[in-house]
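Narrative of activities, Objective 1.

The group set out to show that a structural description can be obtained from nothing but a protein's sequence at a throughput compatible with the screening campaign. Below is one input-output pair from the validation batch, recorded exactly as produced.
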Amino acid sequence: MLSYRNVLKQSWQITWRNKYLWIFGIFAALLGNGGEYEILSRSLSGDDHAIWPSFYRVIQTGVFGKQTFNNVIQWMNEDILSFLMMSGVVLAILVISCFLIWLIMVSQIAIVNNAGNIIKRKKNNFQDGVNSGTKNFWSILGLNVISKIIICLLLILISLPIIFFVNKISIAMTGLLFSILFIIFVPIAISLSFIIKYAIAYVVVKNSSLINAFKQAWQLFMNNWIISLETALILFFINFVAGLAIALVILAMAIPFLSLGIIVYLLTSEVGFWVIAVLAFISALLLIGVGGAMLAVFQISSWTGLFVELVKNGGTAKIIRVLDYGKKDK
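Output recorded for this entry:
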């Protein structure tokens, strides 16, 4: 029988006993610790409503037009040195961005791989994670990019009534259209995020090809969609509590740092105060970094553990078990 308690306990043990995974967790956290929660928050807050209008306004500026190209050619002819320097800066930013993307993908894969190995009692170390990340980089990058594009398109579709009909129909009708599209497309986007999680696990843990992994992930999700939703809700609650705890610890730390800063300022100089302020900022940053890394490892390990359990033994959703138990009592 599937036990969420066992899956979560196992994930916590993986997180705490294998602290080298926190290094991967720092970068994996940049991908977002919870795709489903991000989808809901972005769709409700309206962040994606501005994507298309903003893009349209950028196009209207003519930045992609012929005049921009002519200006670049003129700049290159008039001041080749500054053009080369700026090109070097842009190239450096591009290289750093590509390296960061590589780090994020490798870190995500490494946690999935090593968590799977730990669960199956196989050898695991830092190098194993890096090797798996390098091996599966393009497949996992493709899955992440495809999911992000599709999810963004779905969320943009939700905003269509606001974009095109806000001045043509009543506010009530616009709200109704938005609600209908929200009910249709948000569940699809959330379902896709679950499928991508399982597809990544199939590629990394089971060595499936990209196409087969997606097909298998689809089937696994369809058979266990309620379990996936229950797991996401549990992890959301854990994320919320952990985030609140980190915020409270930072607030508690701020009091002694502030008191010490004031004392140093009164007894010495303003420089001492700013030294204390910088130390306080670094301490808060370290706490957020370590907390975020641990949460990333815990979350990815939880989904990997759930995947291994579902593939091996299957499972029944908690709500189904409760309803069945109620029927037996009757």
